[in-house]
Amino acid sequence: MAVALGGCSGGDGGGRKSDGTRSPSERSPTSYPPPSPPRTIPSVRSYEPGNGPGWRPGNGSRVVADPDGSLADEARMLARELKVTYAPGPARKGDVELALRPGQSGGGEAYHLTTRDGRVRITGAGDAGVFYGTRTVVQALRSGGQVPEGVIEDRPDRPQRGLNLDIARKHFTPEWIEARLHRMADLKLNQLGLHFSDDQGFRVESDSHPEIVSEDHLTKAQLQRILDLAARLHITVIPEIDSPGHLGAVLRAHPDLQLVSARGVPARGAIDIGKPGSARIVDDLLREFSGVFPGQYFHLGADEYSALIAENPEASYPALAAQAQQKYGSNGRIRDLATDWLNDRAAVVRKADKQPKAWNDGFFSGGVVAPDKGIEVEYWTGKEDGARPPAQYLEEGRTVVNLNDEYLYYVLGEPNQFVYPTGERIYKEWTPAVLRGSQAVTSSPTGPDKVPGARFAVWSDIATAQTEAQVARGIRLPLFAIAQKLWDPRRPPLSWPAFVKLADRLETPR
User: Fold this and answer.
1) How far apart are CA 197 and CA 249, in angstroms?
2) How would you write the pLDDT of the chain (510 residues) with one tens digit per residue?
3) What is the 3-state secondary structure (H, E, C) of 218-272?
């Protein structure tokens, strides 16, 4: 962190009265000890100290913003947290002022925070940036009792920063999810992925196919409350309906669409992509939930399709193999049908103005059908046989989001050689460029335009292995660590023990 320390003015010349003292108008300005940067998580990227006492709320302090502007909600929230009054302004000494400055440098999530003359002013080009400035104020007060005098210029390195939550295999209460949103906002995280459809359950109320919904689920009203809170906290909620695998909850209500092998064995969770009814039901759900979730993304899954995991896909599923050859010629394979399936689902959500995402093992190279270049790759694993390294996706010109299972997968019950990841490993070893295993990609560019960010993922493989409270405790420090490394991937300014101590000081009960 670059910190330019300012000097203090002084001098001992002229202007003395007959008794040797200075007249009030000629005294040197008061000098204060050079302030330290505020202690926050994530740490601020740039701080220029000033000469002054800093700011803390006092009698008569207010949070000031235009009541007719878009920052009124942010101002009211900060006023509640600081236990002061919200007012329309104009700002005066003792106040915190929030204001938009269109065209301010750094993008919509950047902010400038100036503490001077007994007041704080936070500006940004977008609402989110000003909101993040308010998070810095709150954290600075928690960690040091004041906002230090000077100027902070801050922005995130990566635009996608968040948590992925599997609510399909374990039902999490809406209150628990809302508490995670508050924690995320405190850390300037901006995405919550909701994986709500899998073999074990479909956990959100559906109007188009109520027959597939599990007994324990989020109602539309509960989901809307979550979405409304996320919007106020500048968090985008990303829905995921995984297909053509992981559809067991759908197939229990529609067994006629189940994929069956040549030996007559149903493929667990796999829908038969050769049947027209399969596309119809999945597309019904994609259209319905594209209208429910207001964010720009929709996750299509595409991982672990049983027909492609088989040792010999064409021999195991000859009906699909024959359909592929009929559709694409003699070189057609089942993977081409799967790629076509993914491309078609991407087209459905694009019509609803959504950016499609899919897991990396749903993308295949060298086939007759090429995966749509506009689908964002979410890279989670390279451990399976024949897995393509992340550099290949980057070399194809694809955008790759980091969900590296070595560092970022919290799998309940620790099955299949998974171990619960620690915040310390993320803090010390991981960066957005570490997409697979523990080694950073060096052969291809991994800047924000190519690797726009990451999410820490909770997977509920053994749902009863941990309670909600245990999950909250387990992911606490990893979320602090990933927030730091996505905001600023450079070497952090604090040692790990000091970072943990700061996290303890910053945290409020949720």
Assistant:
1) 7
2) 344 322 333 333 334 444 444 444 444 578 898 899 999 999 999 999 999 999 999 999 999 999 999 999 999 999 999 999 999 989 999 999 999 999 999 999 999 999 999 999 999 999 999 999 999 999 999 999 999 999 999 999 999 999 999 999 999 999 999 999 999 999 999 999 999 999 999 999 999 999 999 999 999 999 999 999 999 999 999 999 999 999 999 999 999 999 999 999 999 999 999 999 999 999 999 999 999 999 999 999 999 999 999 999 999 999 999 999 999 999 999 999 999 999 999 999 999 999 999 999 999 999 999 999 999 999 999 877 678 999 999 999 999 999 999 999 999 999 999 999 999 999 999 999 999 999 999 999 999 999 999 999 999 999 999 999 999 999 999 999 999 999 999 999 999 999 999 999 998 754
3) ECHHHHHHHHHHHHHCCCEEEEEEEECCCCHHHHHHCHHHEEECCCCCEEEEEEC
Q: Is the peptide bond preceding residue 244 cis, with omega within 30 degrees of 0?
A: yes
Rounded to a whole number of angstroms, the CA Rg of the chain reads 27
Return the SS3 of 439.
Answer: strand
Burial label, 170 (beta-carbon count in 10 A; 0-12, 13-18, 19+) = buried
Q: Residue written as tokens 């209208």?
A: 291
- What is the CA angle 320-360-384, rounded to 5? 80
